[in-house]
């Protein structure tokens, strides 16, 4: 099996990727999936019910999770023809860094329930491909270890803001020291949504110690415990869950975070235009339109439905990123056309991680890159800057 043999990192060429897949037929049928649904099926076979249910599930009846996907069907692309599409560029620049493509790895915690390499696998894939990696605060691997394997790969740190401000300061200064170049503050999950699959499976990964790397390696966190995490893991997990996500969080706490770091701050979990405006007044440098992949507030608006209203309110004052439901190149084009500066990829890379570790993650991201580049070109555009509102039409 040959996989992306001629593909150079940071110099991905869609034609090379397509050809490497066609040529892999020399050795019989391809062993790795091409389509996302097949990665998902294989992940389901490989993982135990609890771990698969954790990534696959949403909140409540799953209405918002479906709305995220369905929203992409309410827009259609209107291609232009007879354009010279020989030179194509999918790169974007954000906060002073150039990315290979207009997407990033969404922060996904507790990766050790999917693969023993946990966050190290997607982090290495990200660095290799020139795609930024957003490390979750509830990662199994601590943030310094992830930084080490990424070399100079672009990395951002996602913070669930702790109740204790000293702990917040400690996470932020560790992230700065380890070369993370932006902070993502996630604000839609101060309480865990009603996740019926996980409730049925009686499954919460943190209880068995997954996702505690950043907490257990933090000196301020350890000073809050009666005993070290090694001595009493159960007690340490309980403190991390109690302290780890500030249910009393208000804009004042965001001001506190703003004062602690000079790094760009992006607020993740915004779906209301009024919140986007207030967030900018409180000094954020970017907005991430997200409903957490439909895992939190069931019945909430799909993010592609929310995006145009937020862009209209923000008036290009700061970049707007979005996630939830991005599965294909067409989805990425539609989000960019409606005003996103970049999108975050969530579940798709987790399924590939579960099936084939770092190699799987690279495959999925390269396929997404290729599909996006081809789609952009076939719709008569050659760069991300050309993806404006005229590219799409609302159809229902
Ligand atoms: C298993 C899992 C774990 C997640 N962990 C985090 C996290 O630690 N921090 C965070 O901000 N978002 C987290 N998210 C939400 C993602 O960052 C992202 O918003 C969501 O996956 C996008 O939806 P999609 O997967 O349907 O594309 C998680 C999502 C999943 C599926
Ligand atoms: C108390 C918040 C924990 C969030 C856990 C990770 C996550 O974001 C998710 O499962 O979704």
Automatic annotation (TrEMBL):
Active-site feature positions: 292 (proton acceptor)
GO molecular function: (S)-2-hydroxy-acid oxidase activity; FMN binding
Keyword Flavoprotein found: yes
Recorded superkingdom: Bacteria
EC number, UniProt record: 1.1.3.15
Co-factor(s): FMN
Record-linked InterPro entries: Aldolase_TIM, Alpha-hydoxy_acid_DH_FMN, FMN-dep_DH, FMN_HAD, FMN_hydac_DH_AS
Catalytic activity: 2-hydroxyoctanoate + O2 = 2-oxooctanoate + H2O2; 2-hydroxyoctadecanoate + O2 = 2-oxooctadecanoate + H2O2; a (2S)-2-hydroxycarboxylate + O2 = a 2-oxocarboxylate + H2O2; (S)-lactate + O2 = pyruvate + H2O2
SUPFAM superfamilies: FMN-linked oxidoreductases
Keyword annotations from UniProtKB, A to Z: Flavoprotein, FMN, Oxidoreductase
Pfam families linked to this entry: FMN_dh
Entry's family note: Belongs to the FMN-dependent alpha-hydroxy acid dehydrogenase family.
Residues holding glyoxylate: 54, 160, 195, 292, 295
Record-given protein name: L-lactate oxidase
All residue ranges annotated as the FMN hydroxy acid dehydrogenase domain in the record: 28-396
């Amino acid at each position: 099996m040959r996989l992306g043999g001629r593909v150079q990192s940071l110099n991905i060429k869609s034609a090379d990727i397509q050809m490497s897949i066609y040529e892999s037929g020399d050795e019989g049928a391809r062993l790795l999936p091409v389509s996302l649904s097949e990665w998902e099926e294989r992940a389901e076979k490989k993982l135990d019910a609890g771990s698969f249910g954790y990534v696959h599930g949403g909140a409540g009846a799953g209405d918002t999770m479906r709305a995220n996907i369905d929203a992409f069907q309410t827009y259609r692309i209107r291609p232009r023809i007879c354009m010279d599409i020989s030179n194509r560029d999918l790169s974007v620049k954000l906060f002073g860094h150039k990315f290979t493509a207009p997407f990033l790895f969404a922060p996904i915690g507790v990766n050790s329930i999917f693969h023993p390499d946990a966050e190290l696998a997607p982090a290495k894939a990200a660095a290799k491909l020139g795609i930024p990696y957003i490390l979750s605060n509830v990662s199994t691997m601590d943030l310094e270890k992830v930084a080490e394997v990424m070399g100079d790969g672009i990395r951002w740190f996602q913070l669930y803001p702790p109740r204790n401000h000293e702990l917040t300061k400690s996470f932020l200064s560790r992230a700065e020291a380890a070369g993370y170049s932006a902070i993502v503050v996630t604000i839609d999950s101060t309480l865990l949504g009603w996740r019926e699959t996980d409730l049925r499976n009686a499954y919460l990964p943190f209880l068995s110690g997954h996702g505690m790397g950043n907490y257990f390696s933090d000196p301020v966190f350890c000073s809050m415990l009666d005993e070290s995490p090694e001595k009493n893991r159960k007690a340490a997990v309980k403190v991390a869950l109690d302290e780890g996500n500030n249910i009393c969080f208000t804009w004042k706490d965001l001001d506190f975070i703003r004062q602690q770091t000079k790094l760009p701050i992006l607020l993740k979990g915004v779906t209301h235009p009024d919140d986007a405006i207030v967030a900018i007044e409180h000094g954020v440098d970017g907005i991430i339109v997200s409903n957490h992949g439909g895992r939190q507030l069931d019945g909430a608006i799909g993010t592609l439905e929310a995006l145009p209203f937020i862009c209209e309110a923000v008036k290009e004052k700061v970049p707007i990123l979005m996630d939830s439901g991005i599965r294909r190149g067409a989805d990425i084009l539609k989000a960019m056309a409606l005003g996103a500066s970049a999108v975050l990829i969530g579940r798709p890379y987790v399924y590939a991680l579960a099936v084939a570790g770092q190699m799987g993650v690279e495959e999925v991201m390269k396929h997404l890159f290729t599909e996006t580049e081809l789609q952009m070109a076939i719709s008569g555009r050659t760069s991300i800057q050309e993806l404006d509102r005229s590219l799409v039409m609302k159809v229902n």
